[in-house]
Amino acid sequence: MAAGSNARSRDARAKAAELLRQQKARDRRRRLVAVWSGIAAVVIVGGVVTGVIVGNAKPSSSAAAAAASVPTVAPTVAHGAESAPPWKAPTDPSARAKAAGLQMLSSEGTVEHIHSHLTVTVDGKKVAVPALLGIDESAGSISPLHTHDESGIVHVESPVKASFTLGQVFTEWNVALATGRIGSYSTADGRAITVFVDGKPYTGDPAAITLADHEDIDIVVTQSGVTASAPAAFTWPAGY
Questions:
Q1: How far apart, in whole angstroms, are the C-alpha atoms of residue 167 and residue 126?
Q2: Measured in whole angstroms, how far is the alpha carbon of residue 143 from the centre of its chain?
């Protein structure tokens, strides 16, 4: 009996020791988890702080890049070809944007956002304002000044507050525009070129017209001596 009791006692002590060992091992693991969690928290906080610092540092460089994408003073002249219509969208939109004093962006700007409407009519027939002016689909870039479709709506979506002119639109379009000229048409060749802004005659250089939100710009080419009239006001789609 005594031998059996002693054996049971040793077994009990061994089990108790094993349980104690296991408990201590669990305690060590919990302490290690707590330590590593603390370290991870510091790393995360450090990362957040670093991210905040870096994030706060970016706007200065981004702001500089944004400011550089648009000239301080918008050009009041257009640089384009003296060719006859149809005037298609140029195949080198980035180069045309640069000629207009603009830099291509990776996405549309959101600081200055306006829409103007442009129509060109020659001898009673509308000339299409092409889609994708100022948009380089192959490069995935876009000018602050562009068109999306052939509606005649000109979009200004700039990363900075700035003025944009009709001359810049025509430079991106690569169509000549000046007093008494649009493309191949000129008053020197017996043509009359009448410009209307919001239905009223405009007598200055059309390239110098500053774009404004919901502004309606119409350029009407007729034979000399024919009285031009402004087209009907543009009906803006919902959302504009």
A1: 20
A2: 7
Whether the model pTM is above 0.90: no
C-alpha distances (whole Å) from 227 to each of 1, 80, 193 are: 131, 27, 10
Q: Shortest CA distance to 79 belongs to which of 69, 68, 90?
A: 90
Q: Are the C-beta atoms of 233 and 215 separated by less than 8 Å?
A: no
Tokens of 60: 């200065």
Beta bridge partners of 113: 157
Element (DSSP H or E) covering residue 222: strand 215-223
Instruction: Give 42-53 pLDDT, tens digit per residue.
Output: 333 344 333 333
Beta bridge partners of 201: 196
Pairwise CA distance, residues 155 & 161, whole Å:
14
The CA distances from residue 167 to 28, 32, 130, in Å, are: 75, 69, 16
Percentage of the chain modeled with pLDDT above 70:
72
Contacts of 73 (CB under 8 A, 6+ apart): 163
Distance in angstroms (rounded) separating the CA atoms of residues 85 and 119? 13
DSSP for 134-184, written as a single string: TEETTTTEE-SEE-SSSS-EEEEEESS----BHHHHHHHHTB-EETTEETT
Residue 202 burial by Cβ neighbours in a 10 Å radius (0-12, 13-18, 19+): middle
